[in-house]
Amino acid sequence: MTAAIRQYLVITGNYWTFTLTDGALRMLVVLHFHQLGYSPLAIALLFIFYEFFGVVTNLVGGYLGARTGLNRTMNIGLFLQIVALTMLAVPAAMLTVPWVMAAQALSGIAKDLNKMSAKSGIKLLVPDEQQGTLYKWVAILTGSKNTLKGVGFFLGGVLLMATGFRGAVIIMAVALGLVWLSSLFLLGQDLGKSKSKPKFREILSKSRAINVLSAARMFLFGARDVWFVVALPVYLSTAFGWDHWKVGGFMASWVIGYGFIQTIAPKITGDMEGIKPAALWAAALALIPAAIAGGLMAGWSPQVVILGGLFLFGVLFAINSSLHSYLIVSYARANGVSLDVGFYYMSNAAGRLLGTILSGWVYQAYGIEACLLISGGLVTTAALLSLMLPEKRPVIV
């Protein structure tokens, strides 16, 4: 086993474990506070700091990764998630909205430090001429992460019913603590550290390709979260009458399948000669939420429309996400890769923040059909932006 593969496995293992706790924590918070009688908008507000600090973290985190090494930023992310989980292990009377928002803020910082470090690290382990290998490695990391996030959704629902909210976060904090201790010794020193000390002003990308891709990413992920983060779990619980097991299990199954599609995205997209795949696949995706909204407004069976539409949306969104993840790693500079990747994931976090706020507010005021129509509009914007990307096709090997 080469040193590069060993480091890839350590990075992936860290990312996997973190993702399990992140997915479980999100489902725990949504279901627990919905059970307590919080409105969809109030639940969305609990995640505002999580998403807002993700925006800040990706900008500053990319800068820190270039100056200090990605091993340090990844380990800091793991530690901060342990602190966030510990904060939520207090007695129920102390779980006030400000306290939960503060814990979510720490979790948001932790998540984006971890993601930025993992995605940037892969760029440094694959030679630049092996674009097919890079696409595959990024697809596997991204897809497996989302599969485990789905498992985390299910885990969150199970732990909530089996051990209660407090017991669940304690179990996750202990497990993640063991991974953090291992990572301190196994992860390579000074991974991704820039040869020259970058200036703070360099956190803003000067690359047109990265700026365009980042804008497209923002609208793409806003389109997902505008109906997926708060509106969908609450809709499944209220309109379908599903309990925590069913909601958590369904959301988990969807994300697991979505993650699997991401891992095989290079086989689906292939080497698409003469077209811009990011624009093509985004245009196809834009049709799905609009069709789901149309079906609901026409009075068709909600179970058939929502569940069938979710399947199609998941497949196409997974391909779009995997393509984007490959393109940013490919476009990024080898020296100071975390600066470019951090800027890109700042836009990703901004899209999630936009989607999260809209998800609670629009669903509460206008219903899930409005969330879906907005989703279609956001994806359409992402498709139009993707037309401006320079052609860069992976050679599948």
Give structural notes.
The chain is mainly α and 397 residues long. The model is unreliable at 393-397 (pLDDT under 50). The protein is built from 14 helices and no strands. Helices cover 80% and strands 0% of the residues. It starts with a helix and ends in an 11-residue tail after the last helix. The radius of gyration is 20 Å and the shape is globular. α3 (48-68) runs parallel beside α5 (97-125).
Helical segment count: 14
Low-confidence stretches: 393-397
What fraction of the residues are assigned to beta strands by DSSP?
Answer: under 5%
The number of distinct β-strands equals: 0
Which term fits the overall shape? globular
H-E order = HHHHHHHHHHHHHH
Distance between the termini: 20 Å
Relative helix content: over 70%
Radius of gyration over alpha carbons?
Answer: 20 Å
Structural class: mainly alpha
State mean pLDDT (0 to 100 scale): 81
Features:
mainly alpha; single chain; about 400 residues; 14 helices
SSE topology sketch:
Blueprint: H1 3-35, H2 40-46, H3 48-68, H4 70-87, H5 97-125, H6 131-186, H7 208-228, H8 231-238, H9 244-263, H10 265-269, H11 277-297, H12 302-331, H13 337-366, H14 368-386
Helix pairs in contact: 1-4, 1-5, 1-6, 2-13, 3-4, 3-5, 3-13, 4-5, 4-6, 5-13, 6-9, 6-12, 7-12, 7-13, 7-14, 9-12, 11-12, 11-14, 13-14
Summarize this structure briefly.
This protein is mainly alpha-helical and 397 residues long.
